[in-house]
Amino acid sequence: MAGAAVIGPSDNNYNGKVTWYVILSCMMAAMGGLLFGYDIGISGGVTSMESFLKKFFPKVYMKMREDTEVSNYCKFNSELLTSFTSSLYVAGLVATFLTSYVTKAFGRKPSILLGGAAFLAGSALGGAALNLYMLILGRLLLGVGVGFCNQAVPLYLSEMAPPRHRGAFNNGFQFSIGIGALIANLINFGTEKIEGGWGWRISLSMAVLPASVLTVGAIMLPETPNSLIQRSGKNDNDHHKAKIILQKIRGSADVETELDDLVNATTSLSKTNNYPLKKILERECMPQLVMSIAIPFFQQVTGINVIAFYAPILFRTLGFGESASLLSSVMTGIVGMTSTFISMLVVDKFGRRALFIFGGVQMFICQLAIGTIMAMHLGDHGSTSKGYAYLVLVLICVYVAGFSWSWGPLGWLVPSEIFPLEIRSTGQSVTVAVNFLFTFVIAQTFLAMLCDFKAVIFFFFGGWVLVMTCFVYFLLPETRNIPIEQMDQIWRHHWFWSRVVGSNSA
C-alpha cells in the first residue's frame, strides 16, 4: 500500500508512483501478447519447412521442388496453405464478441485466464496433429485464445498504468508480441535442422509453456479498479475493494482524486450498461468509433503481416535457402523487438502522433524501395543476386523497425485508452474484430496477390501507408499524459472532431 516499493516520478494529475506491484501484474498480463507473437512467428516458419509442407500440403511441396515453370512469385500460392494461417483469425474474430461480454460482465482477469487456457489446448493439438483437420482445429482453438487475450490485455494494461506512463505500459503488449515472434523464429531455425522431419511439431507445441504460465499467472492477477467500479454500481463494498487495489498499484494512500474520477465515470452506466452498441453509435462517441475502426484497419494494410506470416516464404522467393530464410526471420524479429522497446521509452515523451507519423514515413520509403528492387531485379524464374537479396533484407529490417515503434504498439494503445468506461470493453471488441477481420483478409489473399501483382504488391501497401499517415496528421489528437477517464475532452478541442461532438463550452 503506501509503503510499497516505488520507482519513477509522480503523476501530474493523481497521487502515486509506478510500483513494482503494477509492473509485475502488467508483465504477467502482457504474456498474452507473447502468445500472439509466438503464433505469428511459428506459422510463418513452419509453412516454409519442407517436411511440414510434404506432410500437410504436398501439392505446394511438389510445386516448390520440381515445377521450374512456375513463377517465383507463385510457387507458394495455395488457398489451403493460407487457410492454415488465416483460420486462427476467423476464430479470433468470432471469439472477440463473446469476450466483450465476459470482459464487461466478469472483468479483465477472467478473459485473460480463458485466453491462456484456450491457447494451451490449441498448442497441444497442433503439435500432436496427425492430419490437416487436427491441424486446423488446433489453429481455431489458438484463435479463441488470441481473441480473448487481445481484447482483454490492452484494456488491462491501460487501466492499471498511471496516466503519465500509460503508453510505456501498454506498449509492453506489442513488446511481448515481438519477444514471442523472436522466440518462435529462433525455435524454427533450430527445429528445421532436426533429422527425421518432425521439428515442426516442437515448433507448434512449444507454445504450451508460455500458455501454461499465463493461465496459472492469471489466477493471481488483481482485477483493475476500473473494472471493479464498472461492475459494482453503487456498492460501497466493491468501491472499497477498488480503493485498496488502487492504493497498492499507486503506492499511495491518497488516491481519492483518481477514485472519484472512476466513480464519476460510471454515472451514465445505468442508462448505457444494457445498450453499449447503442451508446457507441451516438454522435458524442463517433470519434472513438472511427478510430477503433480506422487504426486497426490501417495497422493491417501497412503490409506488416506479409512480413510476419510469410517472411521465410518471401526470402525463399528472393533465392535464400530454407535455413537462411529462417535465419533472416530471426534478424527481423530482433529488429522488431528492439524497436518496440525504444517505443516504450519514448512514447510518453514524444507522444503518439509523432511516432505514428515518423514511422509511417519510414515504412512508406522502405515499401517503395523494396518494390522497385524486386521489380527490376527479380524475374519470374531464377533468383536475384545476393547483393540485392541482402539489400531487400536490410530494407525489410528498417521497415519492421518503423512499424515496431509506431503502428505496431500504438495500434493497440490508442484504441484502448480513448473510450469512456461504460463502453470501453465494446470499443475494444470493435478494435480487435476489425484487426482480426483484415488480418484474415491479408493472410488469406497475400500469396495470391503476390502471384498476380508480383513486385507491385509493395507499392500497393506503400500507398496505404501514405494514406494512413495523412489520416493521423489531420484527424488524431494527442492522448499523451491525459488521464484515461478524462479522455473525452480531447475531441472537443480538435479542429475537426469539435464540429461532430461539439466544442467545450467550459
From TrEMBL:
Membrane topology annotation: Multi-pass membrane protein
InterPro entries on file: MFS_dom, MFS_STP/MST-like_plant, MFS_sugar_transport-like, MFS_trans_sf, STP/PLT_plant, Sugar/inositol_transpt, Sugar_transporter_CS
Principal cellular location given in the protein's record: membrane
Recorded GO CC terms: membrane
Keyword Iron: no
Limits of the Major facilitator superfamily (MFS) profile domain: 25-480
Top-level division of the source organism's lineage: Eukaryota
Pfam families: Sugar_tr
CDD domains: MFS_STP
SUPFAM superfamilies: MFS general substrate transporter (SSF103473)
Localization: Membrane
Keywords per UniProt: Membrane, Sugar transport, Symport, Transmembrane, Transmembrane helix, Transport
GO terms, molecular function: monosaccharide transmembrane transporter activity; symporter activity
Transmembrane segments: 18-38, 80-99, 111-130, 136-157, 169-190, 202-221, 289-313, 325-347, 354-376, 388-408, 429-450, 456-476
UniProt KW Transferase keyword: no
PANTHER family xref list: SOLUTE CARRIER FAMILY 2, FACILITATED GLUCOSE TRANSPORTER, SUGAR TRANSPORT PROTEIN 3
NCBIfam families found in the cross-reference section: SP (TIGR00879)
Family: Belongs to the major facilitator superfamily. Sugar transporter (TC 2.A.1.1) family.
Name of the protein in its database record: Major facilitator superfamily (MFS) profile domain-containing protein
Organism: Carnegiea gigantea
